[in-house]
Amino acid sequence: MSLLTVDNLTVKYGVDTKDELLACHEIDLTIEGGEFVTIIGPSGCGKSTLLHTMGGLISPTDGAVRFDGVPVTKPNPRNAAFVFQDYSLFPWKSVEENAGMGLRFAGASKAEAMSQAKTQLEFVGLKDFGERYPRALSGGMQQRVAIARALALEPKLLLMDEPFGALDEQTRRNLGTDLSRILGEAGQAVVMITHSLDEAIFWADRIVVMSARPGRIAEEITVETPRPRQLEFMTTKRFQDLRVHLFEQLEVHQRDAAERDASSSAAVV
Amino acid sequence: MPITLTRPGRRVVRRQATIWALRLALLLAVLGAWRYANTAGEVSPLILPQLSAVTDSFTQLVGSSHTWQQAGITVLEMLAAFTIAAVGGLLCGFLLSRGPVIARTAEPLLAWGYMFPLALLYPLFLLWVGVGMGSKIAYAAVGAFFPITYNTIRGLRSVDAKYLQVGRAFGASSLQVDFNIKFGAARPMILAGLRIGSSIVTIFVVLAELLGSQKGLGHEIEQASSRLMIADSYATVLLLILITIVLQRVMERLLRAKHE
Ligand SMILES: Nc1ncnc2c1ncn2[C@@H]1O[C@H](COP(=O)(O)OP(=O)(O)OP(=O)(O)O)[C@@H](O)[C@H]1O
Ligand SMILES: [Mg+2]
């Protein structure tokens, strides 16, 4: 059985108000155990909405999300843990408390949460920053704390919303490699939203391309090359072909969105 | 690295020195003006006593156990009023913040209570609680209760949705949401409320003592001026100012968030 299935999912915001907005439209998607799936698509196309619905933070307007065959009605962090796009660390808690907070919320004892927090902070390279407060950290460091907070739960599925957005190339690649390795060893699956073409291809077993709003799945691309991959993978023809293909796809969807926005604003005028 | 570290440090030190120099200059100017006003024929000693008379009177006051007894009463009233207002305000703020309708109803009432010139009601406090310490404590506690409650409600209700989302995503219990998220996020605002409350308490206690009491520094001031012992009255005011400054400093220290 698949780990997670998204079945004919439609999500609307502000249903029955004048601001009703169709964010995701009739999406079908499955995630297998241990799989690394990347989602790429134009800004505002509904990627975060899809991810939040997969983890039970948003209820489907139509369709269903199932985890291990069971309908998801609310978040269960041991099944699926989030890394949010805006990190959402608590500024009033130290870095270590933040990293352990997810586990605390999930019901773990303080001692267990703190020891896991230490372990995960070390993993993301922030061992010496546990006592600091988030505001003393750079954006990239805060993102890593958010990753540590999610990893601490050892979830079966990690739902990450642009987790490397504020990191430099080098850190991003190192952390990605380590992450992909330990998740692979533990058989944990990942869904990761990204805006980087290279990232979308390099880590993925499967790439999900979304069209401009209302978000639909335009294309799913399987990347056969086995993981973990060496950096040389990025110089292969397969990688380059995929990159060109993705680039063109995103261009098309971006243009669609621009044209639609132009025509709708023209209609208003 | 050490260069970039010491430079701002030195600048800060220099700025601090400038600030203190300016303060000293201001103090000297005030004292100078005082001395000048004291010279014959400028200002009546009934309005402005001799500076030396005030300092003499001050040293005498500080040396007297009676003064410190009165000061103790005033400080005790302040602390008691603040404790009552803080506990009551935090509790009410927390409870009222739980119901959206109740909170929306309570907020403007509390804001209004904060604006209202409560001094008008002091005679009623005297009637209800009597002229003893109780009326001072009750009056100051009521005054400080409003801003503390108001800020607590506002703080707890304006928590950024993204923090609450983290709680939901990781399955936080409602107790955890309250104490780990809401109170954490609202802390700066609550602490601001407590700081406002603490200064209101000092003002209200002294005011209440001036308006009607048998003890406390406010009472001493009132006594001295009604007997035209102007120098004593000035000296007591000075002592009161020093005491409130110390109290305010301690409060500020206690009520500062760690991460601020
Ligand atoms: N809480 C909300 N209420 C109303 N509309 C929303 C809400 N959240 C998102 N939207 C709208 O839904 C659409 C999809 O938003 P979403 O955040 O899922 O996009 P995204 O693909 O993650 O974009 P980005 O790449 O910029 O993060 C957008 O038009 C957005 O304005
Ligand atoms: Mg997003």
Descriptive account of the structure:
- The complex is a heterodimer of chains A (269) and B (260).
- Chain A is of the alpha/beta class and 269 residues long.
- Chain A has a domain at 30-61 and 155-268: Rossmann fold (3-Layer(aba) Sandwich), CATH 3.40.50.
- In chain A, 38% of the residues lie in helices and 22% in strands.
- Chain A has seven helices and ten strands.
- Chain A has helices at 47-54, 95-105, 110-123, 139-151, 169-186, 197-202, 237-268; strands at residues 4-13, 21-31, 36-40, 62-67, 70-71, 80-83, 157-161, 189-193, 206-210, 217-222.
- In chain A, the strands form two sheets. In chain A, strands 6-7-8-3-9-10 form a six-stranded mixed β-sheet, with helices on both faces. Chain A has a four-stranded antiparallel β-sheet with strand order 2-1-4-5, covered by helices on one side.
- In chain A, β4 and β5 (70-71) form a beta hairpin.
- The longest helix of chain A has 32 residues, at 237-268.
- Chain A is globular, with a radius of gyration of 19 Å.
- By secondary structure, chain B is mainly alpha-helical.
- Chain B has ten helices and no strands.
- Chain B has helices spanning 2-38, 51-62, 65-98, 100-115, 122-129, 133-157, 161-169, 174-211, 217-226, 230-254.
- Chain B starts with a helix and ends in a 6-residue tail after the last helix.
- Classes of the chains: A alpha/beta (269), B mainly alpha (260).
- The A-B interface holds A 55, 57, 74-77, 81-82, 84, 86, 88, 90-93, 101-107, 133, 135, 153 and B 162-163, 165-173, 176, 180-181, 184-185, 187, 257-259.
- The complex binds adenosine-5'-triphosphate (ATP) and magnesium ion (MG).
Short description:
The complex is a heterodimer of chains A (269) and B (260). By secondary structure, chain A is α/β, with parallel strands linked by helices. Chain A has helices spanning 47-54, 95-105, 110-123, 139-151, 169-186, 197-202, 237-268, and strands spanning 4-13, 21-31, 36-40, 62-67, 70-71, 80-83, 157-161, 189-193, 206-210, 217-222.
